[in-house]
Amino acid sequence: MTNQPAAIGTSARRHDAAAKVTGGARYTTDVRLPGMLHAKVLRSPHAHARLRSIDATRARALAGVHAVLTREELAGLSPTYGYFVKDQPVVAMDKVRYVGDVVAAVAAEDEAVALRALELIDVVYEPLPDVPDVTAALAEDAPELFEEAPPGIVPPYGTGASGHLRPRRNVCYEFRYATGPADVWQECDHVFEDTFAFSRMNHFHLEPFVTVADVRGEQIEIWSSTQNPFPLRKELARVLRVDENRIRVHVPYVGGGFGAKHNCKTEPIAILLSRMAGRPVRYCLTTEEGFLTLSQHAAVLKVKTGVKADGTFVARESEVLLDAGAYSDGSPLVAEKAAYRMPGPYRWTHVKSSCACVMTTTTPAGPFRGFGATQSTWASESQVDMIARRLGMDPYELRIKNLKRLGEPFVPGESGIDSDLAEGLDTVAGELGYHRRARTPNRGMGLAIGFKDGGGVNKPAQARVKVTANGAVYVNSGTVEIGQGASTTLCQVAAEVLGVPLEQVAYAPINTDVTPFDQGTNASSGMTVMGRAVLRAAEAVRAQVLEFAARQLGCEATALTLENWAVRRGDEAPIPLPGLIMKVFGGTGYEFSGEGFFKAPNSPEAPLDAPCVFWEIGWAGAEVEVDPDTGKVTVLQLVASGDVGKAINKLVCRGQDEGAAVMGLGQALFEEMRYDGSALLNGEALDYRVPMAEDLPERFVSVTQEQGHGPGPFGAKGAGEGAMVPVAAAIANAVHDATGVRVTALPLSPERVFNALHRH
């Protein structure tokens, strides 16, 4: 390519660094419009109840109130939304299905007036029996949360995979996958069956769910803290029954999302209130309301594994029950991944897995960093360790014996593994000192491998790169800057292709009217999917520039190279481009623009209808000390590593892996949304325990592997989720190594570990 200072693989300064550290960065929560009103919502105090009546007369009469939204105002709309299943209403219509379900909304001059108005709304509820967990929801006599089936779809699947809407009571969706002969169980010398429980986490993003809506005549304009502006626009158009070109979505910086900020959240209510009031409306949730909006899925995972006496893996069957909460949201997509990833990175003759989304009267659950892999890896990697110890083998050796090789297909019809799994495991084991460990009472070490398909399913991405006459470059794409550094790394790709310093490249603001389409910022797809689109767009621009210069110089484009916004022919002195451009186009100059597109090809052989773009793999190792008198687990060492193929920006990659690992540490030791029946007990920041600085291990190491097999620009792969996925299992495996006791439920709280020790 070039030797310009934008070189790939450096730790170039982030584009958003100065704005964020000085407080100048503008988020949706900072948006203010003239005449803006403020919205608040009335939430249900009941977990499950029929709405007998709603009377907002007194609220509408309160001075300062400009609009009140109830189910009466939903006439003429398609008032429910979701991914595969359209079951969540903008405001409750026939029933409420969890404590916190939205019943009505108010727009007023300020939040204080809006809150007073909520107290004046009279609602008559008819309480119904609740179903607070998956066991209660699946019982034969359980009340149905949805007596009538909401609209829903089953997407196309390939070999061995299938999806099912409402297969049984209170299950909105079930995904199943199977491959290989089922009769191999008779070849197994040992069959192990274990059950694991996975805790529910809150996304805990610092910027709340927030939307500012401005409806003027036929035009709907919103500023939203969202990860998927284009699918959001499409869903809003369906709900509101308007054409998409009437909706314009702006996305400033997003203050964290971790999967929560997909699809409709605050947007429909803000839009409808603005339409009713004729003024802009800001609808911003509190942190406590965020706990009532979306969570990660709790899960019960049953795993049956058959092995030979020498530890060779033969067969694995699994059943996963996700607690989807009151509405489906992204649960069907998470179910696909949780079931599909249950085999882990290992070689099997037979695999059969299923995952059901069980509806309960609790906070809806949806996408969360790791997206199903956190649940499946917790069970899979815990059981691998358990099997090793039952067979008298070292857990490291059992893994090495059964790991898939580089290039080996994950399952029939799927793409090949693009990391050397054994190399990655050796890297972490070596950094941890696993093979040199000395046996010390109450101390132990554990390893785990996190494994997920990355890049999204059937995910298309478009990008545009344009260059001004003076060599200023603009990268225009729909990838949202949510703190992961995409606005910098995508610009690095363009800078490298065009041979200019990174300082000359800007990342354009997202506006769905002019920004090229992207399916969403998810599945660690920014570099492998959008990165490929940006690469192609930059290459298209470069080709245009070289062809233009060649015409002016009377030579072939292949004879020229592009460097620092000048062209060079052989060993001749570089010719600055601005002069050539002005000579043809005059003083106003000209802009070169190139388009890029990337999407993995569909295949009927691929179980999920398209082969995986890349495999996001994380390795983790932990050393712990367990206090037998209290059950407290202290992590002495935590080593986390991901293979990024080729690091476009090494500091960004390191930040993603370390942030992910700390979230994994939280999952392992602290984080859990605790319920008493259907009532959330710790739904506020002071009561919900997340890792603090003092909780970091004395030795915390991240290793960014660059194995070089990635499909993205310059051999890159996605990052940001993989290093979270194996951490909880690695710590639980270390606890087992330290105490001889296996804890099969998260988090590994002192109480839970103490009780396990005393049952032993």
Please characterize this protein's 3D structure.
Residues 22-129 form the Aldehyde oxidase/xanthine dehydrogenase a/b hammerhead domain. GO terms for molecular function: iron ion binding; oxidoreductase activity. Pfam families: Ald_Xan_dh_C, MoCoBD_1, MoCoBD_2. This protein has 760 residues and is of the alpha+beta class. The protein has 3 domains: 31-128 and 204-291, Aldehyde oxidase/xanthine dehydrogenase, a/b hammerhead (Aldehyde Oxidoreductase, domain 3); 298-456 and 605-759, Aldehyde Oxidoreductase, domain 4 (2-Layer Sandwich), CATH 3.30.365; 459-598, 2-Layer Sandwich (Aldehyde Oxidoreductase, domain 4). Helix content is 25%, strand content 26%. It has an 8-stranded mixed β-sheet, with helices on both faces. Strands 9-10-18-17-16-11 form a 6-stranded mixed β-sheet. Strands 19-28-29-32 form a 4-stranded mixed β-sheet, with helices on both faces. The termini are far apart. Residues 1-5 have low confidence and may be disordered.
